[in-house]
């Protein structure tokens, strides 16, 4: 870990506290029902793993993989599905789990596709929300932290497939990605 490249924004302990809080809220909102939790790969996988352990409901897991960034730090706005869901969502309560909502374009695209598949409901949980960059009407129902307009890594989030393993959520210094 090169500490010269990052500044810690939220510690692993703060993240776990927030994930527990979100799990309680989701469990309360869906009490007596089951849930299909859909993780958006790759960034959400660590958050999703911790979150589903805090949801006290019967649930299924599935994943969707989309691409809108490539190796850039800014979304291209063009969304491609790389891996679709394995399960039908018809009549199910679907909770989309995303690591970070930035422009919201990817999330809006995914939500609109899933709504056409006749689920009972579709809600969104994200660990990090960056509303200052929103370019779409996609707004999460459950938010861990609202963050400033900084490039974030750690806890599953990456820059060019690096930094995912960091246990904290960190701001990546611009000198790393502005080379």
How would you briefly describe this protein structure?
With 179 residues, the chain is α/β, with parallel strands linked by helices. It has four helices and nine strands.
Task: Give a verbal description of the structure.
- With 179 residues, this protein is an alpha/beta fold.
- The chain has one domain: Rossmann fold.
- The chain is 23% helix and 30% strand.
- It contains 4 helices and 9 strands.
- The chain has helices at residues 12-29, 45-52, 105-115, 174-177, and strands spanning 6-10, 35-41, 59-67, 80-83, 93-101, 121-129, 142-146, 152-153, 169-172.
- The strands form 2 sheets. Strands 4-3-2-5-6-7 form a 6-stranded mixed beta sheet, with helices on both faces.
- The radius of gyration is 16 Å and the shape is globular.
- The mean pLDDT is 91.
- Its EC number is 2.4.2.8.
- Belongs to the purine/pyrimidine phosphoribosyltransferase family.
- InterPro entries: HGPRT, Hxn_phspho_trans, PRTase-like, PRTase_dom.
Notable traits:
9 strands, alpha/beta, 4 helices, Rossmann fold, 179 residues, 30% strand, single chain, globular, three-stranded antiparallel β-sheet, six-stranded mixed β-sheet, 23% helix
Spatially, the strands of the biggest sheet line up as 4-3-2-5-6-7
Range of strand content? 25-35%
Radius of gyration: 16 Å
CATH class: Alpha Beta
Please outline the helices and strands.
Blueprint: E1 6-10, H1 12-29, E2 35-41, H2 45-52, E3 59-67, E4 80-83, E5 93-101, H3 105-115, E6 121-129, E7 142-146, E8 152-153, E9 169-172, H4 174-177
Parallel strand pairs: 2-3, 2-5, 5-6, 6-7
Antiparallel strand pairs: 1-9, 3-4, 8-9
Helix pairs in contact: 1-2
Pfam family, one: Pribosyltran
Catalytic activity: GMP + diphosphate = guanine + 5-phospho-alpha-D-ribose 1-diphosphate; IMP + diphosphate = hypoxanthine + 5-phospho-alpha-D-ribose 1-diphosphate
Family: Belongs to the purine/pyrimidine phosphoribosyltransferase family.
């Amino acid at each position: 870990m090169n500490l010269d490249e990052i500044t810690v924004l939220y510690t692993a302990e703060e993240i776990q506290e927030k994930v527990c809080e979100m799990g309680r809220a989701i469990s309360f909102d869906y009490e007596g029902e089951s849930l299909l939790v859909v993780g958006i790969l790759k960034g959400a996988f660590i958050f999703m793993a911790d979150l589903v352990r805090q949801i006290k409901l019967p649930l299924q897991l599935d994943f969707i993989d989309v691409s809108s960034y490539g190796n850039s730090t800014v979304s291209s706005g063009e969304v491609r599905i790389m891996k679709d869901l394995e399960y039908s969502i018809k009549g199910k309560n679907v909770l989309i789990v995303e690591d970070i909502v930035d422009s919201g374009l990817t999330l809006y695209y995914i939500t609109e596709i899933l709504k056409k598949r006749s689920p009972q409901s579709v809600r969104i949980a994200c660990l990090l929300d960056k509303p200052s960059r929103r370019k779409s009407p996609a707004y999460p129902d459950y938010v861990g932290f609202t963050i400033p307009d900084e490039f974030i890594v750690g806890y599953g989030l990456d820059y060019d497939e690096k930094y995912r393993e960091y246990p904290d959520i960190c701001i990546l210094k611009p000198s790393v990605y502005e080379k």
